[in-house]
Design goal:
Layout: H1 10-22, H2 25-32, H3 36-50, E1 55-57, E2 62-64, H4 66-92, E3 97-104, H5 105-112, H6 116-122, E4 126-133, E5 146-151, E6 158-172, H7 174-180, E7 195-196, H8 202-209, E8 222-223, H9 226-234, E9 240-242, H10 244-252, E10 257-258, E11 264-275, H11 282-294
Parallel strand pairs: 3-4, 3-5, 7-8
Antiparallel strand pairs: 1-2, 5-11, 6-9, 6-10, 6-11
Length: 297
């Protein structure tokens, strides 16, 4: 049997947040255009509903209890999302609005942003806000609507849609090639294989893919962000497995050379991920459709 518990009112949550931030029911009342008694009653009703005290009431100030700090941390992102949704609907009358997107730093810089002028030209009603992070987005902690992230698309409880495969080819600087040769072989120095911490098996996968005897190992320098591996490769630190969309400028300028004409598709790729409750946002649906049109470009 499932028991349904009605959520607290938005006003009681606003009173909690404002009182905690300002340290006073009186200050919260001024901010919310209520009486001090009304704010106090809203918080008291919320405490009675939860069955715990949220504040330690002192003569000159309020302090959150442990339960209060936990509860506020849980509801604050929801209040932020509610405020953003309200502002968006009021400003755009439901026709577009803001879309907050978490994007991996490298795919955002080298693949997404160069394509965004076309999106903003065709969809001026949508304001796109980007934040970068390494790894999967934490929708509980971050106030974002969706994430373009590297992974396998398996995020329980979240909606995931494949966007872009990760195709890898080895590249090196001309100076490194002059000293070490222009192909990757079983005799290539293992410490010169630049490693990605998000793809620790990438070089081993390449050795199998390209039928190179032996194991690549993980002796080379490690970088968490692919763009750092790119710059280390340009600086002559070794060989990096990189996607073509990142190296076009470096190839054209002669700073990098391709060591193989083959491309290996890594098992993981880039997915558009969002909570189920934001999947139907009009701005996100427009952006998702536009991303589909970019596949293969």
């Amino acid at each position: 049997m499932t028991l349904y518990t009605r959520a607290p009112s938005t006003m009681s949550l606003l009173c909690l947040e404002s009182s905690a931030r300002l340290g006073s029911f009186t200050a919260a009342a001024l901010e919310l255009h209520l009486t001090q008694g009304a704010v106090s009653r809203q918080v008291q009703t919320l405490e009675e509903r939860l069955g715990v005290a949220l504040f330690i009431r002192r003569r000159n100030a309020l302090a959150l209890t442990d339960a209060g700090r936990y509860y506020l941390a849980e509801v604050e992102p929801l209040l932020q999302r509610l405020d953003r949704a309200t502002s968006t609907v009021m400003a755009f009358k439901g026709r577009g609005g803001n879309l907050s997107l978490s994007v991996g730093a490298s795919v955002g810089t080298y693949w997404l942003i160069p394509r965004l002028p076309a999106f903003t030209r065709d969809h001026g009603e949508i304001t796109l806000n980007l934040v970068t992070r390494v790894g999967p987005a934490d929708f509980h902690a971050a106030s974002v609507d969706a994430s373009l992230e590297f992974g396998d698309g398996k995020r329980p409880g979240l909606h995931s849609e494949f966007v872009l495969p990760l195709m890898l080819t080895p590249y090196a600087a001309p100076s490194w090639i002059a000293a070490n040769g222009e192909t990757v072989t079983m005799h290539t120095s293992r410490p010169s294989l630049i490693q990605h911490t998000t793809m620790p098996d990438a070089w081993d996968s390449w050795y199998r893919f390209d039928n190179i005897d032996g194991a690549a190992g993980r002796e080379g320098p490690r970088f968490e962000i692919m763009s750092m591996a790119l710059n280390a490769c340009i600086a002559g630190m070794g060989i990096a497995l990189l996607p073509p969309y990142m190296v076009d400028d470096a190839i054209t300028s002669g700073r990098l050379k391709r060591l193989s004409r083959r491309k290996m598709q890594y098992p993981k790729g880039y997915y558009l991920v969002c909570p189920e409750e934001t999947a139907q946002m009009q701005s996100l649906q427009v952006f998702r459709q536009w991303l589909r049109q970019q596949q293969g470009s």
